[in-house]
Amino acid sequence: MINFKKLANEYKTPLYIYDLDYMTKQYEELKEAFKGRKSIMAYAVKSNSNLSVVKHFSNLGSGADCVSIGEVRRAFLAGIPAYKIIFSGVGKSDYEIREAIEKDILYINVESEAELSRVELIAKELNKISRISIRVNPNIDPQTHPYISTGLHDNKFGVEIDIAKRMYIKANNSENLDPVGIHFHIGSQLTELKPIYESAEIVSDLVRSLETIKIELKFFDIGGGLGVKYDEEVTINPYDYAQAILGTLKGLDLTIICEPGRFLTANAGYFVTKVLYEKQNAAKRFVVVDGAMNDLLRPSLYSAYHKIQAVTDSTSDKTNADIVGPVCESGDFFAKDYPLPALKHNDLLVVHSVGAYGFGMGSNYNTRGRSAEVAVKDGESRLIRKRETFDDLVALELEFL
Ligand SMILES: *Cc1c(COP(=O)(O)O)cnc(C)c1O
So what's the pLDDT on residue 278? Predict the structure, then answer.
């Protein structure tokens, strides 16, 4: 068990803590589920991009799914080999495409016809062949929060089946493109297997239809999206997930690429914040803490639920309170009407399940430095990112006069 009090004393608050052993366990479980096939786990760096975390997955043999050239650079810095790095995303700039081709990564996930032309042109200028995969939008409702749904025709991601087919033919005829993969990623925090299975079916049918015109792909990239338990959700078992997908690939000799983010990191992370004040208004009890939406945006952005644990010697009955931060926005809260005992100055609240899309979505809003990050492994803790200081925050600003 992680000793939150000790770590909060040692590293101060607000503080992110990551349990690397938990990440290992999740990684091994997912990798194991696909063991009947060749597979590469390409960790979705955006879920938690701290270099020590990426390095941890690198040491386990993971690849990386990156959504900016900055993330590609992180993957290289963490020692992930080029042949396990994928570059996805709906709006890649020319310099990003150029660098990805020069670095000879596994492939670029292309998300539009215009982007395919751009990649071809840049590869031609560099006198290279760019390996590509095309992100197909299977138009399946993933039954998740609309902000994290990506596989419907009104989402900005991917291309429809017939456009994808046209793009494969173009890529196959190009001297500077090599179509090696196919990709889909229908959303995040998925807790239903059916939409995933149906998408895999649609996409594998396209692979078969491409084979009939002599376009043979090597990689079947199933994206990420596996949901986790934040509260009482019933989630997908990794073994069932793998079986459902593999079942759609009968007769196809493809390497599976899986891009897990949240599944590996969410429940490995804790956010520790200190109680500043209790405050009772006419209609409501508030617990004001030293962490805020600039540290952890998910409750404000998605109304996300996070379990919150009080570290206190208070034994009073629990009553409902809103847990709010110091930022000047009514949307700055971690929970509403959450049952908590009476708390005093310096008691701790631990927000659970924040290892994915936590620190990375942070900002400096209200001129607040971002929290420190600490990793715990084999019972030992280590600082993996320093707390930002005021000097860090103003370092890039220039005087107008
Ligand atoms: C965000 C993202 C992932 C990871 O999603 P999770 O829900 O965290 O598993 C994987 N692939 C792509 C293309 C993504 O954009």
Answer: 97
Domains in the chain with CATH codes: 4-15+267-393 (2.40.37.10), 34-260 (3.20.20.10)
What are the CA-CA distances from residue 73 to residues 3, 287, 305, 361 (Å)? 34, 40, 32, 19
pLDDT in the model for residue 85: 98
134 Cβ below 6 A of ligand 1: no
Quote the percentage of the chain above a pLDDT of 70: 97
Which of 172, 170, 171, 201 lies closest to 184, judged by CA? Answer: 201
User: What does the mean pLDDT of the chain come to?
Assistant: 96
pLDDT band at 151 (very low <50, low <70, confident <90, very high): low
How many Å lie between the centroid of ligand 1 and the Cα of residue 367? 30
Closest atom of ligand 1 to 259 CA is 10
Amino acid at 102: E
**Above 70 in pLDDT, residue 225?**
yes
Instruction: Return d(Cα 256, Cα 276) in angstroms, integer.
Output: 49
In whole angstroms, give the CA distance from residue 322 to residue 328: 15
User: What global pTM score does this model have?
Assistant: 0.96
pLDDT digits (tens, 9 = 90+) for 234-266: 999 999 999 999 999 999 999 999 999 999 999
Question: Cα–Cα distances in Å, from 211 out to 215, 218, 251?
Answer: 5, 11, 11
Structural contact between residues 61 and 277, judged by C-beta atoms closer than 8 angstroms: no
Compute the distance from residue 186 Cα to the ligand 1 centre, in Å.
9
Ligand 1 atom, smallest distance to 260 CA: 9
Does 259 contact ligand 1 (Cβ within 6 A)? yes
CA of 357 to the centre of ligand 1 (A): 11
Binding site membership of 181 for ligand 1 (Cβ less than 6 Å): no
